[in-house]
Every structure is written in structure tokens, then in C-alpha cells.
Amino acid sequence: MKINNNVILITGGATGIGFALTKTLCENNKVIICGRREDKLIEAKNILPKINIKKCDITSKTERDELLKYISNTFGGLDILINNAGVQKPIDFTLGNNEFEDSDIEIDINFKAQIHMISTFMPLLLKSTNPSIINVSSGLAFVPLSNFPIYCATKAALHSFSISLRHQLRNTNIKVFEVMPPYIYDTELKDGKVSLERPPFGMSSEEFARIVINGLNNDKYEISQGGTNDLSSIIKEDFYKRFNMMNK
To answer: How many domains does the chain have?
Structure first.
């Protein structure tokens, strides 16, 4: 994959892994980041003046269409879509329906919106000479953490979807990558607060961003590191043999 001289859209690009990727990629690409919180987008722009920002709730069809129009009119196309936006909520089902009602946003952002973003921007990607879709899932797609049952389920769904999408697009120029982060300690994902203190496990968003870029450079379609390698390897050995048999 060529990662220079592209037009790149990163959802949730103002914080965490998204911002680390933005910081790395904006040097040699035109990078647009979008998110629901305009204040965070402005903060990112103040740090990285070269980037372009656009407020967008990717769960809204109206705002997705506005984003498509903005990118089409401003940049004339799109080469790389990085589906990075995500939320994570602890949910205890023993507390009943009220506990679950607020979790719809996890399903909408972590899975449904990712599919809609791909569908929305597919016409632009098909016209690109260097098109790629990069979906950010999680090692928890393989072995769930039961305190976050909806989050883990959405990431498992995104993993499955990425495999099917890659197969469907095999006769096009579009490459489909899946990024499976380990525990990233300096992210707002869990509780909206960023920890700057390195724990005895996991890694920083910038460390993982370097791993992602290396994987993209080498056309590694499933990019993982650390404990995520251990989790994903549980099913990998036999999975693709069966998948290829079913999807000839």
C-alpha cells in the first residue's frame, strides 16, 4: 500500500489512536478528520495546522452525506478511509433494561456507522488509483471482556464484516485492512479521560500507530500486536481454511 500523496479520512481522528495516525499521516498526505466534538477537532487542528477538520456524527445519514459532499467538492476524491471512531461502555445486564438502553450508541458508532461510511464513500474509493479501507476493531473481538459485552460484540462483528468485505472487493483495487489494537492506555475510549501513566502492560497510541503504518507499508491485512496476537491466533490457524472453502 502506498501511504504518501493520498486524501485520507479518519473518523474519530482527534484523540487516541486516531490522532496518533493523523499526526503520522498528515506529513505526506491530505488528511481530513471528523468527529462529534468540535472542540476536540479544533484542539487537534491547533496542534496539527496542516490537517482538515469537519464536525460529523457518523451515525447520522444527513451528516455523512454532508461529509461526502465536502470531501468531493474540496478534494475531488478519497483514497483511504480509516474507520476509527468508537465508544466503550461497561454494561451490567443484571440491572435490567434501563442499563442497556443507553448502549445503543455503541452499536450505532462501533458497527452500523462503519458500514454506512464504507457504503457512502465507496463511489469515491472505486475511482481512486490507491484505495484502501482500514477498520479498527480490537483483540476483544476474539476473546471478549465480559464487563463490556456490547463493545466486544460490535468489534467481533466488525472483524467478520472486514473479512467478508475484503473477499467481495478482491477483484477491485480496494484493499481492506483490519487493525486490532491491544490495550492502549492513552485513549478516551473507556471513560473519556486520558491516562498519561504507562501501566505494566499495553502501549501508547503513538507506539501502536507506528506498528499500523509498518503493517500498511507491507500490505499486512490484519495488523495486531502484543496480547492481541495471542487472542487472534486462537482461531486464525483453521479459520481461513474453512472460510476459503465456504467462499469460493
So the answer is: 1
